[in-house]
Design brief:
Blueprint lengths: L3 E7 L6 E2 L7 E13 L5 E11 H10 L5 E14 L12 E16 L2
Parallel strand pairs: 4-6
Antiparallel strand pairs: 1-3, 1-5, 2-3, 3-4, 5-6
Length: 113
Amino acid sequence: MNTVNLYGRVCQDLELTKGKGKDAWKYVRFNVAVADGKDDDGEKRTQFIPCIAWNTTAQTLIDYVQKGDRIALRGRLNIQKYDASLDPSDDHDPDWRTSVQVVVETFDFVESA
């Protein structure tokens, strides 16, 4: 089962990206700051989790959520591996990178900033 639950604050103002055409896709990318306990020195740790929401979920986030708002969200982890080489046609070992993000499926408003 691939399920992620997060509770934190939205880190930036949200901006909707749209495809072309009447029925085109829409999405919004954003980070959620999530408390992650304390380090060895007693300092608070925070994880900044990249998230993406699609279509109606993205539009609802754009309409009602602002930077600093606290939200609880549920989604699934999406991990992609890609070759970040400048010229992938070269005969070489690929320069593999990994991209991790949470695909938001549902969310709840918790608190406005």
